Amino acid sequence: MSAVSVDPSHETRFIEMVFPEQANHYGTLFGGNALELMGKAAFIAATRRSRKPIVMATSDKIEFHVPVRVGNLVELTARVIRIGRSSMTVTVDVISEALISGERQLAVRGTFEMVAVDAAGKPTPIEANSTHTPAH
Q: Which end of the chain has fewer beta carbons closer than 10 Å to its terminal beta carbon, N or C?
């Protein structure tokens, strides 16, 4: 079996289905669960970009546009848009998709500051030769 070469530097995507245990009493995705999914997407994008251990420093300007109903899919797209010495800014879009009709809407958008850390948990530089990511 041979290795598959993939360039993960541009964006990270994954899809989840919204189940009742993720919903609030209105039958829509609970905001805390949306943030958890977004944090996971930001973490994966930043880790793939830097190939270093990553922690979240901040979540900024989380915008909830439309509710996501139980039974809908959510497609998360995370992009590294800024790279500093040891930190990266990652934007995450959450698209809600009605499974039967295929209707898609931007549901949530947010920005996260992710920091590369060493074994002691201290910020560590992101190597210049790690996978290049163009700004979007």
A: N
Pick the closest to residue 88 from 125, 118, 120 (CA basis). Answer: 125
Own/partner contacts of 25-32, CB < 8 Å, gap of 24 or more, are: 26/67, 27/69, 27/70, 28/67, 28/68, 28/69, 28/70, 29/67, 29/68, 29/69, 29/70, 29/72, 29/74, 29/107, 31/64
Cβ atoms within 10 Å of 123's Cβ, excluding its own? 15
What are 105's strand-pairing partners? 96
7-35 pLDDT per residue, tens: 556 789 999 999 999 999 999 999 999 99
How many angstroms separate the CA atoms of 18 and 28, rounded? 8
